[in-house]
Design a protein that fits this description.
The chain is an alpha/beta fold. It has three domains: about 70 residues; about 50 residues, no CATH class; about 190 residues, von Willebrand factor, type A domain (Rossmann fold, 3-Layer(aba) Sandwich), CATH 3.40.50. The longest helix has 18 residues. The radius of gyration is 27 Å and the shape is extended. The N and C termini lie far apart (about 55 Å).
Length: about 375
């Protein structure tokens, strides 16, 4: 019996080039600077002074030139302004996907399947005997011919109904998702940056849908005093404003978007850290930030009930631990028969991914 064998430890070779190492830092900083390349490079210069993370033979000046030559940034020759390119925007989304939904590579989840089998586009490994009503396209001829050879012999080939086997395929559900992101001022209050994790989750979810579920749709709705849609390419530049929280406007816009979508499966994900504090009445805003105003909360609850009737579940991700606000979210969730998660910032991505995947498997 062999015992333990002790070998010399050989550290892993760092195969990353100087450019790749600095690029990781640059991409992370872009999430915090709302896509401002000039500010991100300024931060890198300050960090390099303090921590000396660049190579003396490959300085930040070399890195900036490589960013330009490789198409990550553009410089305006007249004004000197530096902007990131669409290539960088896509790279940020891919890195967010790897960072937040990295477990996709370690599991077999994400096939978007349902528990029902039939005429679909995902081949099921199991077969079953032929039944009256099955179509020819479902017949597994390799297995059927093998059965015939076993039952009647190779020299006396005779394919009978009992030899036929059917290979089923699984349906893939298609879903229209609206992701609502709170950009009110409270998302950066009290010294805690809540908007950056929310942006990263949105970028990861958008890249996941674009690459793995191309038939699905994802719309991004941001809401402060008002609500409006943004393009996926605009996510790196998203930032909070001096806004109250008009949850009603966000829900109304999300419902209008989903009304136009043809998919039978529809859902709303809402990321927020605060209570609804604002309504728009005509050209004026009704605001009350000093507690839960019944006029505002009743409108939210009514919309939650309407979504339930339209079979649009709402999943709320509360980035707060305030029991006062959690009580309102519970009432909101009960009206919609949806779900609520009270997620910390580092858990937000995994919560959304798990709920997104479970929703795909349940709805047909």
């Amino acid at each position: 019996m062999k015992g333990f064998r002790f070998l010399k430890h050989v550290p892993n070779d760092d195969s990353k080039s100087d450019f790749e190492r600095l690029l990781e830092v640059f991409m992370q900083l872009l999430s915090y600077t709302n896509g401002d390349a000039t500010e991100a490079l300024g931060w890198m210069t300050q960090l390099d002074k303090e921590y000396n993370f660049s190579n003396p033979q490959y300085g930040l000046g070399d890195f900036i030139e490589d960013l330009k030559s490789k198409g990550y940034i553009d410089e305006n020759n007249q004004t000197g302004e530096i902007h990131i390119t669409p290539k960088t925007e896509q790279d940020i989304r891919k890195r967010s996907l790897d960072e937040i939904f990295g477990k996709l590579k370690k599991t077999k989840q994400g096939n978007h399947t349902t528990f029902r089998s039939g005429n679909g586009d995902e081949i099921n490994p199991e077969t079953r005997p032929f039944q009256f009503g099955d179509v020819l396209e479902q017949i597994d001829f390799v297995s059927s011919i093998r059965n015939s050879q076993i039952n009647s012999g190779i020299e006396n080939f005779n394919l009978r109904e009992d030899d036929l086997e059917i290979r089923e395929t699984d349906h893939k559900s298609q879903t229209s998702t609206v992701l609502m992101i709170d950009i009110s001022h409270s998302m950066i209050l009290y010294g805690e940056d809540r908007i950056t994790p929310a942006k990263k989750v949105a970028m990861a979810l958008s890249e996941l849908i674009k690459t793995k579920y191309p038939k699905d749709t994802l719309d991004i709705v941001v809401f402060g005093n008002d609500a409006w849609t943004i393009e996926i390419k605009d996510l790196p530049y998203l930032q909070v404003g001096p806004f109250h929280t008009n949850t009603v406007a966000g829900l109304q816009l999300a419902m209008e978007i989903l009304r136009r979508r043809k998919n039978a499966n529809k859902q709303i994900f809402m990321i927020t850290d605060g209570k609804p504090t604002c309504l728009k009445e005509g050209n004026k805003y009704y605001k009350n930030a000093f507690g839960l105003d019944r006029k505002i909360t009743n409108m939210c609850l009514n919309l939650a009930t309407q979504c339930k009737k339209l079979k649009i579940p709402i999943t709320t991700f509360m980035i707060t631990s305030d029991p006062y606000l959690q009580s309102f979210v519970r009432s909101f969730t009960e009206c919609n028969n949806g779900k609520a998660f009270y997620a910390s910032l580092d858990e937000l991505g995994s919560f959304i991914f798990d709920d997104f995947e479970k929703g795909k498997k349940k709805r047909v």
